[in-house]
Amino acid sequence: MNMKLAGSLFIERHFHALTHRNYRYLWLGQCVSLIGTWMQNIGQSWLVLTLTGSPFKLGVVAACQFLPIMLFSLFAGIIVDKFPKKNILLVTQTVAMILAFTLAILVLTDSVKYGYILVLALLLGLNNTLDMPTRQAFNIEIVGKEDLMNAIALNSTTFNMARIVGPSIGAVMMALLGAGWCFLLNGVSFIAVLYGLFHIEAAPYVRKKTSNDGIMKEIKDGIVYIARDPLLAQTVLLVAVIGTLAFNFNVLIPVFTKNVLHMGETTYGTLMSCLGIGSFAGALTMSFRSKQGPRIKLSIIASLVVAVCLILNGLSTSVWACGALLALTGFFNIMFATNSNSSLQMHAKEEYRARVMSVYSLVFAGSTPIGSLFAGYVADRFGANGAFLGCGVLTGILCLIIIWNYRKRAVKRPIESI
Fold this sequence. Notes:
Domain Major facilitator superfamily (MFS) profile: 1-410
Subcellular location: Cell membrane
Structural class: mainly alpha
Strand content: under 5%
Pfam family, one: MFS_3
CATH architecture: Up-down Bundle
Distance between the termini: 38 Å
Largest sheet: none
Protein name: MFS transporter
InterPro entries: MFS_dom, MFS_trans_sf, TM_effector
Helix content: over 70%
């Protein structure tokens, strides 16, 4: 068997979403663009902490970036279903590119101020409010239901590969040339994903208007649909807890690096890369097992392990211990997120899918302002160790309450058969 044939068989078996031409265009574009995104993420966090010296103000920036998702994602779910998703993504990715270039210019010309960063974070959040549910719902249009979980796992693999590479490059850039170059390269990276989107040819699903009900009635119908389905409801609640309390690394890791480890940009980039390595391994694991389909038990186990990892992180005081725990946290975070995302998309009816994913965006990313402000406040008062401990204990308690509440209503049949 030659290498080319062996490679083709490996891809078909473990990365079968890549057999779809449209998905390859999207995936390759994201491979480039997401590296730039992670360079901007660590550059912005370090820039804010350098300008202000305040963990709480860093938390405010993260809150501004995700506040629009919390406020408007439910409305976005209605919009996503009424327009071709490819066209929406072309607009949102172009806007994100412009915002990255704007921040780069402000930093490179020494004109940047904390207030400007807040405004740009808010604008990016507004843009992401529409971008996130669109990307989630677009996957099934270009790969179909059978390969959906594999596509989601591959997206996570790409995202976390970028989380490894992006912070490493970003840390070097900041140390040698300054944070402005992180933002500039992020802007350039959007060209790749825009090129991929232009070449995608997919028949769009656009929901036909079936009644004269207003937007609020459609939103209510979507929420009621989720609430009446035990699997959807339990998954959404667990995602809300993890999204609020277990994804505050952009706030906690730079504070931990500066105030606990007393290290600089290189250590910060290394710790972010450790998180990415664990997440990458988790995404690959989910990709390899994607044909088995999502299981609610996996989301339950992963959520509790994440809580334990956060608590242990709060007790650590060394670079090695923190790096290892962050890798483990990343592994189970991605297993949880991929499994939960797949469960929601595969279980939801087609006419409700965009609305379900808008709720997913709300509780996963839209809850970040609450989590960021909480983590920043606790880090200000009790240090980064205290913030890790607080997030971990709350995550564990709330997840156990949700699991206990739904124990008698657990869905026992496999999702693939639904």
